[in-house]
Amino acid sequence: MTQKAPVVHKTRTSYVLDSLRDRILSGELKAGEPLRQNLLAESLNVSRIPVREALMQLEAEGLIDFEAHKGARVTPLSVEQAEELFDIRLLLEPDLLTRSIPNLTALDLHHSQGYLLQMDAALKQGSIQDWAGLNRQFHLSLYAGANRPRTLELVQTLNTHADRYVRLHLLLDGGVQRAEGEHEALLACCRDKRIDEAVERLKAHICDAKQDVLNMILAGRHA
What we know:
Strand content: under 5%
Structural class: mainly alpha
Distance between the termini: 48 Å
Order of helices and strands: HEHHEEHHHHHH
Helix content: over 70%
Shape: elongated
Number of strands: 3
Mean pLDDT: 86
């Protein structure tokens, strides 16, 4: 009995964390919205302990802030933060892709193609959240041959922080259709070992998404 309790507790915390993260990333919980621990615990049918631990993790991910005497609030969308996140992606991901392409196997490329097929299915079902998650997996799959585990870990963390901006971009600006064509072209370059072209396409892909997100924030369309 004593060995099972931590597993149950961890599962509840993960459940709360995933639920709140999805609600923030989807825009259901708006920027600046207060997060009352007792109300969240009641709505999710858990105690306040997993809620508190989940909120601490969300703070580490940059999705919420704890304000003195006010509690937790969803962090506002920030031009400065978005710009920094995409700029760091531009520094890290092209280098990963350059190192990865010569080592990508037929199986690696098959997995990448599989993500694109799943993304297409998610789009037909109208699931932007599923599409966004698969989008991250597709990009990471292209870096599988880089043999840079620490850099890859940094990119995964960046993608977690940037996911809120990316999802809102997809929801508000219809960026999915354009991204799908860019993904197909990028994968074709990787398959043919056209490294320079693949890198340029990746840079343009990230730059376009960055500019769309910045325009969205500045225009106040996230409100």
